[in-house]
């Protein structure tokens, strides 16, 4: 039995590397699949549930292409991208190049971290073990404790620098940070022997602290660049937008149960058709889709499940992949596009949920503001057209929150 599901890669999208395989023996297929689905949903990755497939299921043949409804077949739909704008040079925002590289690591003050390291922390346990082979007994390899090790532990600066190299991109800066931390700890009274004994704790706390610093500084860089107009989120007249594709994919087989409305009839406003029950990872998502389909002001809706589809880049490496996109007509002929991320109640208030909420809120504000005009800059931004609103809604709140977004 084999299971594979698509995972998001930070680097190049390579089909063979974007799969994870679970090999089991003498296991109940349904139970294993259910356990994997539950784990993904608990980790906030419920959108990957639909892409789980087993080798002995009807889904093993792979995805099928689903086309747009005939009435939407010729409709061109564009959504704004998070762009880096420097004069006439406009391109999608790149996290490493535009955000991470702009963090000024040289100005980091390690004193707050040094103050957190306890001076009575437990030292790493050291013990000498003797391992020998024996000719008799149930165990042929025997391990015996022969006493405490007399080896003197020394803090390895080079090792500590390597351990934070995935956070601080420059080895010289990383070395300075480690050196400043050791100096601050020595100023508190830590001896070289003490530093060596708790080196594991120091490196662990340094990594956690640097990750927090990176997030805070990256957010500050991002918000500053948005305020200065160098990061923009607008529909543009020069074509630098994301165009919604003409086809989608489903892993549901021919003849699978389709999702119907509350009146028992088929859905009518989904951008693609048919829409299957299995295309959704939970009952809550199906209920949201049905609700949207029955709104008179709504023009169309789309379940944004593919990782190659629409995404919003924020101040972290991971992009935000919204769950639903829909369009509606407002008063006086105005139109509105809504980009919606949905989360379960068990994820309320956690770090990932709060981050996505903050990014979507900032992008809504950025879209609503008038674009800045500079001398020599071409006017490439639409002055009229649909408004765009981005939001995050918890599933238990959708019945009260979605009507607000429909206004």
Brief summary of the model shown:
By secondary structure, the chain is of the alpha+beta class.
Main sheet overview: 4 strands, mixed
Low-confidence stretches: 1-12, 372-382
Instruction: Output mean pLDDT.
Output: 84
The end-to-end distance, rounded to whole angstroms, is 49 Å
Round the Cα radius of gyration to an integer and report it. 27 Å
* Helicity, as a percent range: 25-40%
Order of strands, main sheet, comes to 14-15-16-17
* Protein structure class: alpha+beta
Element order, helices and strands?
EEHEEEEEHHEEHHHHEEEEHEEEHEH
- Morphology call: globular
Strand content: 15-25%
Number of separate strands: 17
Number of helices: 10
Annotation keywords:
globular; alpha+beta; 407 residues; three-stranded antiparallel beta sheet; single chain; disordered N terminus; four-stranded mixed beta sheet
Could you explain how this protein is built, in words?
The chain has 407 residues and is of the alpha+beta class. The protein has 3 domains: 4-54, no CATH class; 64-80 and 235-405, no CATH class; 99-227, no CATH class. The protein has 10 helices and 17 strands. It has helices at residues 29-42, 95-99, 111-116, 157-163, 171-187, 192-197, 199-227, 283-293, 351-368, 398-405; strands spanning 2-6, 19-23, 53-54, 64-68, 78-79, 81-86, 89-92, 128-133, 141-147, 231-234, 242-243, 247-250, 272-273, 298-303, 324-329, 335-343, 387-394. The protein has a 4-stranded mixed β-sheet. The model is unreliable at 1-12 and 372-382 (pLDDT under 50).
């Amino acid at each position: 039995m084999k299971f594979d599901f698509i995972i998001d890669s930070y680097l190049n999208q390579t089909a063979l590397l974007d799969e994870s395989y679970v090999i089991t023996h003498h296991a109940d297929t349904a139970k294993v699949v259910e356990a994997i689905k539950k784990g993904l949903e608990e980790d906030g990755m419920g959108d990957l549930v639909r892409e789980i497939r087993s080798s002995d299921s009807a889904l093993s043949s792979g995805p099928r292409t689903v086309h747009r409804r005939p009435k939407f077949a010729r409709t061109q739909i564009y959504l704004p991208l998070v762009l880096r704008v420097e004069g006439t040079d406009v391109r999608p925002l790149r996290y490493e190049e535009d955000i991470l590289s702009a963090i000024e690591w040289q100005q980091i003050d390690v004193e707050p971290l040094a103050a957190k390291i306890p001076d009575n922390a437990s030292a790493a346990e050291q013990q000498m073990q003797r391992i020998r082979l024996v000719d008799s007994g149930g165990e042929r390899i025997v391990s015996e404790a022969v006493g405490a090790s007399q080896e003197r532990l020394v803090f390895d600066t080079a090792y500590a620098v390597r351990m934070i190299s995935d956070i601080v991109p420059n080895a010289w800066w990383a070395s300075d940070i480690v050196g400043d931390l050791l100096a601050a700890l020595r100023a508190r009274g830590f001896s070289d022997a003490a530093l060596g004994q708790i080196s594991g704790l120091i490196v662990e706390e340094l990594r956690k602290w640097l990750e927090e610093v990176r997030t805070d500084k990256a957010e500050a860089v991002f918000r500053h660049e948005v305020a200065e107009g160098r990061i923009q989120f607008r529909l543009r007249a020069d074509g630098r937008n994301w165009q919604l594709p003409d086809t989608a994919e489903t892993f549901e087989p021919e003849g699978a149960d389709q999702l119907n409305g509350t009146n028992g009839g088929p859905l009518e406003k989904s951008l693609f058709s048919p829409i299957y029950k299995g295309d959704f990872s939970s009952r809550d998502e199906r209920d949201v889709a049905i609700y949207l389909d029955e709104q008179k002001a709504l023009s169309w809706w789309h379940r944004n499940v593919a990782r190659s589809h629409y995404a919003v880049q924020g101040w972290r490496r991971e992009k935000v992949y919204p769950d639903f996109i829909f369009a509606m007509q407002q008063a006086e002929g105005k139109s509105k596009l809504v980009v919606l991320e949905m989360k379960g109640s068990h994820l309320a208030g956690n770090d990932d949920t709060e981050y996505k909420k903050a990014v979507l809120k900032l992008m809504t504000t950025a879209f609503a503001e008038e674009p800045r005009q500079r001398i020599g800059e071409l006017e490439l931004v639409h002055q009229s057209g649909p408004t765009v609103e981005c939001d995050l809604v918890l599933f238990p709140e959708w019945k009260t929150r979605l009507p607000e977004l429909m206004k």
